[in-house]
Design goal:
Helices cover 6% and strands 36% of the residues. The protein has one domain: Jelly Rolls (Sandwich), CATH 2.60.120. The chain is globular and about 55 Å long. It has 3 helices and 16 strands. It is mainly beta and 245 residues long. Strands 1-2-3-13-8-15-6 form a 7-stranded antiparallel beta sheet, with no helix packed on it.
Amino acid sequence: MSFRPQITILSGEYPGVVLFRYKYWETISWNGQEYPDPRGGSCEIYSEYDLSLYHASFKVAQTSRTDRRKGSLVGLHFQLPPTGIPDEERQKFLQGKLITVNYGRIWDVVVDLRTGTPENPNPHFGHTQAFLLCDNPSQELQDDKGAINHGILYVPPGFGHGFLSVPDDDHTMKGHDGPMCQLIYMLDNAFDVGSQQGIVWNDPVLHIDWGLKEFGLREEDLIISEKDRRNMTIAEARERNMLPI
């Protein structure tokens, strides 16, 4: 189910920091404030205070780097508490993410996987939103897909996350063949291999548009791990009660 949410543009704490808030969603994307100087420059990626102004709580528990070749497709990943964990302990296993592209660009996809309860079901379950994240972002909306061309994305707990590496051909990295991109992940809960779950990238219900034609890729060009190829469909995950509440 494609979903183009209503977007509110918010002013950040510092001049030039613009946050995009998605109605009914906790997802936020923005461009960090750039500080150029004769030596080069710097960019603020994360401000706990700035995010807190928009009711997003995030504390960094782990930071990881990911390098991916052009055509690599990852996800859709999320963390779920192991079976038998009491409700009051579940939050320790759910995982929010702060993602920035250090080099290259990605087509980033977020899916609301929170089912809600029988008494209060989540009306936005299964809705998806795509973002173009890159190392040199602008603040222009991508009207054809409803994506935001931005540098930083906050993905709350309970949302599935995946991306397709789509760097330009001149984005190469020492020690790697062909175009590459590099991501930095900040996580509010540490990665737990026993808690990681996934929804298959080509789920027949979600019908996610991965932009293959726009980025000059074919399905046979995609580089997908065997683990991700074996991910559940969203229908299987719901039947097995393996989705966030």
